[in-house]
Amino acid sequence: MQSLTVQLGERSYPILIGSGLLRQPELLLPYLPRKKAVIVSNTTIAPLYLDCLAKGLRANGIEVVESVLPDGEQHKDLQTLNQIFDTLLGNRCERSTTLIALGGGVIGDMGGFAAACYQRGMPFIQVPTTLLSQVDSSVGGKTAINHPLGKNMVGAFYQPKIVLADTSTLNTLPDRELSSGLAEVIKYGLIRDLPFLEWLEHNVESLLERNPEALAFAIHRSCVNKAEVVAADERETGERALLNLGHTFGHAIETGMGYGEWLHGEAVAAGTMMAVALSRLKGWLDDADVHRIEHLLLRAKLPITGAPIAVDRYLELMRHDKKVEDGRLRLVLLKGVGSAIVSDDSSDAQIRVAIESRLPNA
Ligand code: NAD
Ligand code: GLY
């Protein structure tokens, strides 16, 4: 097992990464203030992993309530969030009951938001089961639901007490979901960790083949990067925004196509290529850099062109981004491979050219 800490003063917490951790409920016990927990999961993950976690906790004297939600990004909404509150209230859960999110980023984001709101905040644990959630969404305390007008627009910063990433759960993850997670892994290399990017260039096929050592290394290294950024800028007043490379374009794809059509990582990959195209227009990357990034995303089996949405619609959707300030779009761009900045001086015309150059058949 590998472990690291997200350093946030009295709200610091460990991330445990290893194979078979779901079978070690004793790892969670020190983080439960009372002998009651609610596990929030979905109809796909529950049949695979809920019993194992619940049985282990019950064997240690914990009363376990289960909240099994419909699966899918299209259910990351107010109605499904309310289903969690129904379960919490229906089972007389108290402020000191712990909410355990067992699943991918959708369950983690929604469970975390429920935990932040229920009785103004209950203890929360992340048990991520997708590559994307193990490398990104379970760490850092961003929780949210979607709104028809924009992704993750209603939410809270709310840190978990512990993150338990059982890498053996990735064995049941569909290939397309594994690739989606790789988009966020590659992101860390592109924005701040060039040696990791080079490692990925040598090992991307091993990751796709689910080589356990390669996966463990990539998950740990991603979490180290995320933990450093979050510790430096928990509330995204500065550096944390860099974690959103490709996301402003990507969120426009996810919202524009209808939640669940494009996977989050797929939209981030295509959005990254749009940010790369804009960085190239500004002269911050050269053609070799562009081809290098494109090649790695292609090898990870990710899209390098965006969804066929009208450019005006892209711009309209992008203006709902949380990084917009005084109506100005702030975009994460690359100043060389391995280094990112937030830039607010791109004209609409420049952004249009970048998007158009990355649309299918461009
Ligand atoms: P997801 O939660 O939808 O999971 C992907 C699919 O895999 C789902 O169908 C799920 O049921 C299934 N699944 C999960 N674990 C499985 C397993 N072990 N075996 C088989 N199937 C499994 O998607 P995701 O990619 O994990 O997360 C995407 C979400 O995360 C988006 O909503 C995105 O906005 C959010 N996100 C949040 C942050 C953050 O900082 N909070 C960061 C990045 C992404
Ligand atoms: N996924 C972006 C962040 O956590 O800040």
UniProtKB/TrEMBL annotation:
Organism this protein belongs to: Candidatus Proximibacter danicus
Q: Where is the 3-dehydroquinate synthase N-terminal domain?
A: 68-179
**Entry's InterPro entries?**
Dehydroquinate_synthase, DHQ_synth_AroB, DHQ_synth_fam, DHQS/DOIS_N, DHQS_C
Occurrences of domain 3-dehydroquinate synthase C-terminal (ranges): 181-324
**Signal peptide span per the entry?**
none
Gene symbol here is aroB
Q: What is its main location?
A: cytoplasm
What name goes with this protein?
A: 3-dehydroquinate synthase
Q: Which GO terms describe its biological process?
A: amino acid biosynthetic process; aromatic amino acid family biosynthetic process; chorismate biosynthetic process
